[in-house]
Amino acid sequence: MAKKNTAANPAESDAAVATTVRRQRGIQATQDAQDKRAKGTKKTSGAKAVQAGARRQPTTPLPAQHLTKPGREADLDPRPNFIAPQYEGSNKLAGKVALITGGDSGIGRSVAVLFAREGADVCIAYLNEHEDARETARCVEAEGQRCVLIAGDVKQSAFAGKAVKKTVDKLGKLDILVNNAAFQEHADSLEDLDEARFDETFRTNIFGYFHMAKAAIPHLKEGSCIVNTGSITGLEGSPKLLDYSATKGAIHAFTKSLASNLIDKGIRVNAVAPGPVWTPLNPADKTVADIQEFGKATDMKRPAQPEEISPAYVFLAAPVCSAYITGIVLPITGSVGP
Fold first, then answer.
1. Alpha helices in the chain (DSSP H)
2. Active-site residue list
């Protein structure tokens, strides 16, 4: 029996997105004002950054900058490296269809490009970063694959249903769900976290994953998979990301629990837990001083670029690579150990 379409109408969806953007910018403005009142400076480290990849990546100190939420990749300096020119596809995802939340920029954009290079068509769900989303679509199509865009708020269960339905209607099916959209804003202490901010972080980061997974599962079949974006903060905690870290820990537990729940159906669920990555998420959160130090605390003394993280998503999504892997949280942190 066909399920009733409960997706919100476009006007309601646009209003929800606008409300979310205003709320997140309000949270950011409050924290920015607190940061300006804070005193003291941070010491810089002179340690040399480590280069161990296919090409040299940018190192700290990064240019001073602070983006307005939700943050556009088009405004970042330097632009993140996401295209992975040395990565050669080999049809690991040929004929597959993927839905990626937060796929307009950052890790999500790089995942979309590599999925396309491996033969998958892609649907990108994003909040309101239309310019970034169109650039991601251009890059996916340059790989010879189809790309569908849908804007909306993952906190809304109706949007999750709408995103899945559009993926299936436009691309024919759904094989891979990548939950990646996130909200992050630092706070110096628990006293600075009010319930509204806590609610925004949880409803975006873990409720959003729940809504998307619930909408996607009826369309997934044996051999399909879900890949969630966790974080090193969910493994180790973070003194100034109390709510964000809690959501990432919840995502890790959700990943393992859902993997157990779906294993009999042949549907795998895994997560990637990145360390610091140069994406709009952090310059739209951290102070100018913090951005110039971003990534220096890792053993590699620099942040990762999205193209250094996205191959892990290919590995976990491709049955030819990871058919016997489910319920793991894969740390990619730039440091020894998790």
1. 10-37, 106-117, 130-142, 157-171, 195-202, 208-216, 232-236, 242-262, 288-293, 306-317, 319-322
2. 244
Q: Which phi and psi (to 5°) does residue 267 adopt?
A: -105, 120
Q: Which residues of 6-18 are buried (b: 16+ CB within 10 A; e: fewer)?
A: ebbeeeebeebbe
Distance between CA 265 and CA 270 in Å, rounded? 15
| CA–CA distance, 304 with 232 (Å, rounded to integer) | 13
Q: How is residue 204 annotated by DSSP?
A: I
Residue among 225, 229, 237 at smallest CA distance from 183: 229
Residue 260 has pLDDT above 50, yes or no: yes
- For residue 129, CA distances in Å to 103, 113, 153 come to 10, 17, 12
What pTM was estimated for this model as a whole? 0.83
Tokens coding 311: 């191959």
CA 204 to mean position of chain CA atoms: 11
User: For residue 285, what pLDDT is reported?
Assistant: 66
Nearest-5° Cα angle at 197, 195 to 198: 60
Q: Each residue of 199-237: b (16+ CB within 10 Å) or e?
A: ebbbbbbbbbbbbbbebbbebbeeebbbbbbbbbbbbbe
**Are 273 and 232 a contacting pair, CB within 8 Å?**
yes
Residue 122 parent element (H or E): strand 121-126
**How does pLDDT run across 272-302, given as a tens digit for each residue?**
999 999 887 677 666 777 777 877 889 999 9
Give the 3-state DSSP-derived string for 34-61, with helices as H, strands as E and coil as C. HHHHCCCCCCCCCCCCCCCCCCCCCCCC
Question: What is the rounded distance in angstroms from the CA atom of residue 180 to the CA atom of residue 272?
Answer: 10
Which whole number is the average pLDDT over 201-227? 98
What b/e string do you get for 122-155 counting C-beta neighbours within 10 Å, with b at 16 or more?
bbbbbbbbeebbebbbebbeebebbbbbbbbbbb
The SS3 of residue 270 is strand
Q: Give the contacts of 159 (CB within 8 A, at least 6 positions apart).
A: 7, 8, 13, 16, 125, 152, 153, 211
Evaluate if residue 69 carries a pLDDT over 60: yes
For tokens 């269960």, name the residue.
157
